[in-house]
Amino acid sequence: MKVTEAASPFLPLCQRLFPTRLAGLSMALLKATALELAILAGHLLLYPSGITQERRTGHPLPPPDVAAKLPTEAKPPVVLLHGFIDNRSVFLLLRRNLAQHGRQHIESLNYSPLTCDIRTAAELLGRHVEEICERTGHERVDIVGHSLGGLIARYYVQCLGGDIHVRTLVTLGTPHSGTRVAPLMNAHPIVRQMRPGSPVIEELTGPAPGCRTQFVSFWSDLDHLMDPLETACVEHPDLLAQNVRVSGVGHLALPVHPAVATGIRQALDIEVPGSRAAARNGGGLTVA
Fold it and tell me: Which of helix, strand or coil describes residue 11?
């Protein structure tokens, strides 16, 4: 997809005043940065509301005769998984959007901010998914993971047999190949696991024959936490994957922006195609 940028009238002046820092500054980057700051401010206000685990609504397992009559077109539950040092409040708008368009069962999972291992978090996700399947009568779920949440979900699907229970995994700004950003944060073990060449990343590059989950990865050309930017793409010969390039938004906006939400809905509504080659033809999404 061709990405167009509008030149800022202040660019020549900025380059003269700050030639090393602001060289190449674009209006798109300015808009995305302003949006990121606004989203960050709003998220800080909402963060306390998402600290506790979500209260489960009563959805008892239906009797066998009712379960057998479950419509084949019924949409599977959606599990929302947040990123590093975050919680379920980041999905407030996306959750509302999905519910307004026919998703009747949406749940968020909070993993502890003290979590220090992607593998442990993936095991917790697996237990959560199995509990949802048992409680709702669905055999499979869809997962939307933001940033680290997408990496946890991929590890569950690819390395812990979670493809049995996960139909579609949508990732938003997830460092599938590892990110080099913020080297000063290497003291945190889970950050080290998100680095290129870490044991976890190496495990994800290993063979995954017969994986049944479909992957859709949204990556942004203005994502300041992905280094390189293409690390947010799923590139694996054994996986049924589509990469969607988003233009005009940063990392924090991916789970919030309505245009991205529309793309997520479309990704969740598409049945797994028969051809892996067809699935690799990624599209593009431009956000003004």
Answer: helix
Q: How many domains does the chain have?
A: 1
C-alpha to C-alpha distance for 169 and 158, rounded to whole angstroms: 11
What residue type is assigned to position 136 of the chain? Answer: T
> Is 225 part of a structural domain of the chain?
yes
Q: What order do you get walking across the sheet with 141-146 strand by strand?
A: 106-109, 78-81, 141-146, 166-172, 214-220, 240-247, 284-286
Burial group, residue 119, by CB count within 10 angstroms (0-12, 13-18, 19+): middle
* Residue 169 domain flag: yes
Q: What is the DSSP letter of 56?
A: P
Q: Is 259 inside any structural domain?
A: yes
Residue 202 sits in which domain range? 33-50+77-271
Is residue 244 a part of any domain in this protein?
yes
Question: What does pTM read for this prediction?
Answer: 0.81
The CATH number of the domain where 163 resides is what?
3.40.50.1820
Taking a C-beta distance cutoff of 8 angstroms, is the pair 160, 120 a contact? Answer: no
Backbone angles phi, psi at 7, to 5 degrees: -75, 135
SS3 224: coil
Strands (DSSP E) contained in the chain are 78-81, 106-109, 141-146, 166-172, 214-220, 240-247, 284-286
> What is the separation of C-alpha 31 from the centre of its chain, rounded to a whole number of angstroms?
22
What is the rounded CA–CA span in Å between residue 25 and residue 64? 61
What does the pLDDT look like over 25-44, one tens digit per residue?
477 778 778 878 887 887 77
> Distance between CA 209 and CA 190 in Å, rounded?
27
Tens of pLDDT, residue by residue over 99-154, are: 999 999 999 988 877 789 999 999 999 999 999 999 999 999 999 999 999 999 99
